[in-house]
Amino acid sequence: MYDDFSGSCIKGGGHLFTVNGRPTAPLRKPEGFYVFTGLEGSVFAVEVSGGSYCPERVQVDTRALDPRLPVVELRLLRRRGAAFSDCEFVEGIHRPGEMVYALRQGGGVKLLSVSDGEEGTAAAFSGYFIRPPVRTRFFVGTGGRREVFVTGDCGPDGAYLVPAGFVHPHKPGEPVVRAYAARCDGDGRFSIPVEPGQGELITQIEYYNKEGKRWVCSSATGPS
Q1: What is the sign of the dihedral through the CA atoms of 125, 175, 200 and 181?
Q2: Is 141 left (phi over 0), alpha (psi -120 to 50) or beta?
Q3: For residue 150, what are the contacts with CB-CB under 8 A and spacing of at least 6?
Q4: Gyration radius from the chain CA atoms
Q5: 115-150 per-position pLDDT tens digit
Q6: Are the beta carbons of 32 and 63 closer than 8 angstroms?
Q7: For 144-172, what is each residue's pLDDT tens digit?
Q8: What is the dihedral of CA 65, 101, 172, 136, to 10 degrees?
Q9: What is the pLDDT of residues 84-124, one digit of tens each?
């Protein structure tokens, strides 16, 4: 499991798991992996809750996993009100269950290249990153071709894998912006973790209107 804000592996415990609605106690490895054993069937609804993170649900079909490495990577969003020393939170209210994003202000990172290889889609960037952009969420493109993507590991050529690929074609020179994310809770409240000092610069959040197939801006109440 990975922290959605930092991209780092979550090695601490305190998480509760259910598989197909039943409480389950997987084996926890020191590297941060959880191993499920003794399960029957091939399709499982897994829910993770507890700790400093929001509950997350994922549908797993073991038949679709690589038999050599049957691993499912799960990204957990930081919970509103949880204490983290490496971020501050931008708060607001929107529609319950909606995923909302805040964009990092400043910076001049651009797309350098996009390539497809045996390992999948990879992207290289030009510019300066505050932290290595591994397992990090970004916006890329302009206008109707803007989209969110998440990086994977860095390859030997300096390009980063994009496990899910891109929806739209992109060209070198397009802006690449760090995207912070949160999901609105049942009351519509959200708290988006951002880098320290960024909270006071962010006055708008964005969400994707699926019906209109476009990005829409909404307001944020400010840092907490």
Answers
A1: negative
A2: left
A3: 75, 135, 136, 137, 138, 162, 163, 164
A4: 18
A5: 998 888 999 999 888 888 999 999 999 888 899 999
A6: no
A7: 889 999 999 999 999 999 999 999 999 99
A8: -50
A9: 999 999 999 988 999 999 999 887 899 999 999 888 899 99
